[in-house]
Amino acid sequence: MMNISAMNEWIEAFEKNGFYEWPNFLDQSSAQAIRLEIENLEAQERFKQAGIGKDANAHINNSQRSDFIHWIDHRHPNQAASVFIEKLQELITQLNRNFYLGIRDFECHYTHYPPGSFYKRHVDRHKSGSSRIVSFVFYLNQEWIDTDGGQLCIYAESQTVATINPQMGTLALFLSEKEHEVLVTQRDRMSITGWMLNEKIL
Ligand code: OGA
Ligand code: MN
Description:
Blueprint: H1 4-17, E1 19-22, H2 28-43, E2 48-49, E3 68-71, H3 79-99, E4 105-113, E5 119-122, E6 132-139, E7 152-156, E8 159-164, E9 171-175, E10 180-182, E11 189-197
Antiparallel strand pairs: 1-9, 2-3, 3-4, 4-11, 5-10, 6-9, 6-11, 7-8, 7-10
Helix pairs in contact: 2-3
Bound molecules: N-oxalylglycine and manganese (II) ion.
């Protein structure tokens, strides 16, 4: 468990900024196990090109985003993912306790950005049917350096307020209404990407 001062730090920063970069959210070997799970799924061709928009409006638009995803059944996660999901559930409890966000569920997928891919500036909280309250991305890439690209940029009033490298074990947490972008990556970039929701999903 994290100690009290570490706990206060993220709560204060999240309250002030609406985002938080959390290094070593899981230990390296737990993160590495999830990375291996993703590589196995990739080898079995279980990833699909990601779309944009919801349900009937969903479509693939390579000029907006070019990542590949595999949805996680978070009520029946495998061994590797369950370590992350337990920690995430503790985090949701803390968020509800401190900010009364009314988070009732979450959804998440494994994500692979191959070299050359990106996700242009967007928000995750859509005006119609906006059940996405807080976005999270858990990164799974060893020894990322600035020139590898693929940073997550978060914006406020058209200024960049955060540039986050997708480093193994780092969790990025931000309000889903915030504008953000994934810069073009030069390397394979793996993560778990998800959203905390204010309603239960089936
Ligand atoms: C998304 C997204 C950010 C990231 O999938 O909606 O913004 O850092 N991902 O992968
Ligand atoms: Mn997003």
